[in-house]
Design goal:
single chain; alpha/beta; Rossmann fold; 2 domains; 7-stranded parallel β-sheet; 6-stranded mixed β-sheet; 15 helices
Length: 351
């Protein structure tokens, strides 16, 4: 009997790859936990989206499930602890949209330092000739990046890509906070590794490129904003829950920091009545940073290939819970369970 793969959420994967590989394919429009369980109960692999969540209850209800694969880097719709305990691989497609996110963060910072959102409409409305007072204000408000300190929170693939971009604008220094990255790696990108307080207090411009975890939840809160310079500009193209939205609103409203650019919010889509949307010193885009036609093609293909690789005994493109390899090794040595009859690929992945 062929192995079964279920597709839920808004997957962009080329599904023909899965049928050509010999899998039985089922597509589901599950929107609730129970519908998701019903669709996935007898599946060997699943291509998933942001919603519905693959929480512990869902994963425990799918005794044959071996691999779940999401587009992009984020895996916050999967309970990683539960997946690891149960011997289920949580896969992603790291690197597929590194370029897009780094470019978007750079574009947001340039837009805010050069006042693009304000001066474009101002000029179209005739302000260039009609409002010399405002023109003079703009000329005294635009800023340069050269000679200033840029802070990067999270020096993974995207943080490093941003460092290579910002370097060309001549900052005085690039500093980064990432407790999992040593200075020897920072040296490769011209970045000085520092603690979080140092980054918050010294940076003129701060950009966030760290995953959303319990450790990073509301990392940027009222206390963190109070430590920043009043002229600081904050960029978040990572995940919304990293920044406390109530604290951000208060900080921007009260002038604790000069401006912010965000592509993500704690709850998405952001409510039309959210007070953040009424702030003139906030630039916001609709979780667009990681997207492009190139990303959709590459990441969708890798999402499907993750499932194909795992179920045919090969290492996936990305694995968010590498400790699961140890769990699976124990299962194979005692009671293979869900992994009965599946070729072993564990030697291809370092834990």
């Amino acid at each position: 009997m062929a192995l079964k793969v279920v597709v839920t959420g808004r997957s962009m994967a080329p599904l023909k790859l899965l049928t050509d590989a010999g899998f039985d394919l089922e597509q589901s429009e599950a929107s609730t936990t129970e519908e998701l369980i019903e669709a996935t109960r007898d599946a060997d692999g699943a291509l998933i989206g942001i919603w519905p969540l693959h929480d512990r209850h869902v994963l425990e209800s799918c005794p044959k499930l071996k691999v779940v694969s999401r587009m992009g880097v984020g895996v916050d719709s999967i309970d990683l602890d539960a997946a690891t305990e149960l011997g289920i691989l949580a896969c992603n497609t790291p690197g597929a949209n590194t370029t897009e996110v780094a470019d978007h963060a750079m574009a947001m910072l340039l837009s805010l330092t050069r006042l693009i959102p304000e001066t474009g409409p101002f000029t179209k409305a005739g302000g260039w000739g009609d409002n010399p007072g405002k023109m003079n204000e703009y000329r005294h408000s635009v800023r340069r990046i050269a000679g200033h300190t840029v802070g990067i929170i999270g020096l993974g693939n995207i943080g490093r890509a941003f460092a290579t971009r910002i370097k060309g604008f001549g900052p005085e220094q690039i500093i980064s906070y990432d407790p999992y990255v040593p200075q020897t790696v920072g040296d490769l990108y011209g970045v000085r590794m520092v603690d979080l307080d140092t980054l918050l207090t010294q940076s003129d411009y701060i950009t966030i490129h760290t995953p959303a975890t319990d450790e990073t939840h509301h990392m940027i809160d009222a206390d963190a904003l109070a430590k920043m310079k009043p002229t600081a500009i904050l960029i978040n193209c990572a995940r919304g829950p990293i920044v406390d939205p109530v604290a951000l609103h208060a900080g921007l409203r009260d002038g604790e920091i000069e401006a912010a650019g965000i592509d993500v919010t704690e709850f998405e889509p952001i409510d039309a009545e959210d007070p953040l949307l009424g702030l003139d010193n906030l630039l916001i885009t609709p979780h667009l940073a990681g997207w492009s036609p190139t990303f959709i093609e590459q990441s969708g293909r890798r999402q499907a290939e993750n499932v194909i690789r795992v179920l045919t005994g090969h290492a996936p493109h990305g694995l968010a819970n590498p400790e699961v390899i140890k769990t699976i090794a124990v299962m194979r040595a005692t009671n293979p369970g869900r992994w009965e009859g599946i070729p072993d690929f564990s030697t291809a992945i370092s834990v």
